[in-house]
Amino acid sequence: MRVNTTAGLLASVATMALAVLPAAVSAQDLNALVAGAKAEGQLTVIAVSHDWCGYRALIQGFKDKYGLVVNELNPNAGSGEELATIKANIGNTGPQAPDVIDVGMVFGPTAMQDELLQPYKVKNWDSIPDAVKDPEGHWYGDYYGVLAFLVNKDVAKKSPTDWSDLRDPMYKKSISLPADPRTANNAILSIYAAGLATGAKSGADAARAGIAFYRQLNEIGNLVPTFGTAAAIAKGETPITSRWDFNGVIYNENFHGNPLIETIVPKVTVAGVYAQAISKYAPHPNAAKLWMEYLYSDEGQIGFLHGLCHPIRFDQMRKAGSITDEMVAKLPPSGDNVVFPALQELIEVGKIVAENWTTSINANAKKN
User: Fold this and answer.
1) Chain-centre distance of CA 155, in angstroms?
2) Is 1 part of any domain?
């Protein structure tokens, strides 16, 4: 599905229409939730890097508002690693057990299948689009980014404009994936987007075409085995990598122009929705629910917006006037050809990539 306006992006994913159930939280319940969270005293999060979607300010805002300690585990973990951390800490009531997770949307159903999540519906449940939430409240989308090329201009003097450009001999030892595609949402969607750019239509066809595309990059010597972390991009080890548009803007600010990072939205690209969920084994369940309320409140959603991500409640908040023209103008340009994959398509793509990546690509599987 292809759309070209920010306001209509979330509405466009309604192809998976799911039943909307009433919200389970009232203002009175929220007061009790605050009391319960303060009694627990702390919250443990995972994979919330401070330069990702405004999380630095969001975490500080939550601490200031409620006076809780926030334990931060592995800020650069991939979605699969988050689920593995829950499994490894079942029965652990200490700070090494995640209370909440922030994962690529495709990992929500996976975590449900593994019985790792507990349902909870935030007060603003009804304004979360149906297509990006489990109807029982086990997981729900919180924000999304648009996949782009991040280009270190000290190394790559000419930036690619589309996926086919990555085959150019000038990009020898220059192209990287952002992370391990067996466990990371942004890498899975990079493969999917590359497959779509070849003309593939279905999820399965695009996944296979994307794997073949990266296999070719590897064979001609353009793919490097190092994943495109912020440090690798800055050092020039991965001059061109696919990451979310907001990553490019934030990295450029953090690097202060040394090196200069150019963010290029390719002609064919995808939007990646991330989802929040509460661990079934959360040691601090009240704090976890309060964190969810905070992230899905107008305050939390605008926090994501300030972090240059598109908040999941964008359409409703835009209509209500909570998101202004000035706020929207600060978002990275998303391009005119953004694809919103349906959930079942993402599940299929993730399965194909996980099963075929290692045998298809001989690049090192170095952990992000």
Assistant:
1) 27
2) no
In the chain, what is the straight-line distance between the N-terminal and C-terminal CA atoms, in Å? 30
Domains contained in the chain, number: 2
CA 244 – CA 190 distance, rounded (Å): 10
Q: Which amino acid is at 127?
A: S
Range of the domain at 290: 15-144+272-329
Both tokens assigned to 51: 């330069």
Residues 132 and 281 in one domain: yes
Tell whether 7 is covered by a domain. Answer: no
Mean pLDDT by 10 residues, the chain (368 residues): 37 35 53 96 97 97 98 95 97 96 95 97 95 96 96 96 97 96 94 96 94 97 95 96 95 94 94 96 98 98 96 94 93 80 92 91 46
| Distance between CA atoms of residues 104 and 244, nearest Å | 12
CA atoms within 13 A on the CB side of 22: 3
Question: Helix %, strand %, coil % for the chain, to 5?
Answer: 45, 15, 40
DSSP letters spanning 269-323: EEEEEEEEEEETT-S-HHHHHHHHHHHHSHHHHHHHHHTT-EETTHHHHHHHTSS
- The verdict on 230 and 313 lying in the same domain is no
If asked whether residues 207 and 352 sit together in one domain, one would say yes
CB 91 within 8 A of CB 281: yes
- Alpha-carbon Rg for the chain in angstroms: 20
- Largest separation between any pair of C-alpha atoms in the chain: 63
- Do 127 and 276 reside in the same domain of the chain? yes
Same domain for 315 and 238: no
